[in-house]
Design a protein that fits this description.
4-stranded mixed β-sheet; about 170 residues; alpha+beta; single chain; two-stranded antiparallel ribbon
Length: about 170
């Protein structure tokens, strides 16, 4: 693979006007944002970017860019609590044993005991664990959740958290 092709496979982190890391875009999209003056380079990274040549233009593309325009993203809403969304949040694995076979939904606090159908009370469970737990609470069965259930967060916030976690890890 040529060096030019390797450069075109790189990605650039896009920040909002308020310096919130939003997402990664491929280098072609980053060039368009820079050339149309919709973004500007950010120079806080220790490593450089890439120099890209076209027949009429040479442009330095940094590893991080900041949007100059307000992003008109549609408002993100917390998705409804349904099978598809709970499975997605729990990565299609039982939250009790880790199995990915014969998955169902389970109410951590059973509805018969006042549990609600909310993000913090519904988890993915395999048929075996769900049957074993039955209509009982975790303390009654001695079972434990692998992680505490919570509502999904905005994709840009999730990306920002992961971005800053990686930056912190690289500093250590």
């Amino acid at each position: 693979m040529t060096i030019a092709m390797q450069v075109l496979e790189q990605s650039v982190v896009v920040f909002s006007q308020n310096y919130l890391p939003l997402c990664r875009v491929n280098i072609k999209r980053a060039i368009v944002l820079l050339v149309t003056n919709k973004a500007e380079p950010l120079d806080f990274a220790t490593e450089g970017g890439w120099r890209v040549h076209s027949p009429s233009l040479v442009i330095d593309v940094p590893k991080h860019i900041r949007l100059k325009i307000g992003s008109n993203e549609r408002t993100w809403k917390v998705p409804p609590v349904n099978r598809r969304e709970v499975l997605r949040r729990d990565h299609h694995t039982c939250q009790y044993c880790g199995s990915s076979k014969r998955l169902t939904l389970d109410h951590v606090i059973p509805r018969s005991k006042g549990g609600l159908h909310t993000w913090d009370n519904v988890v993915t469970a395999c048929e075996r664990c769900n049957s074993h737990k039955g209509d009982r609470t975790l303390s009654e069965t001695g079972m434990r959740l692998r992680k505490t259930p919570k509502a999904p967060i905005h994709p840009a916030i999730a990306f920002a958290e992961q971005f800053w976690t990686n930056v912190q890890a690289n500093l250590e």
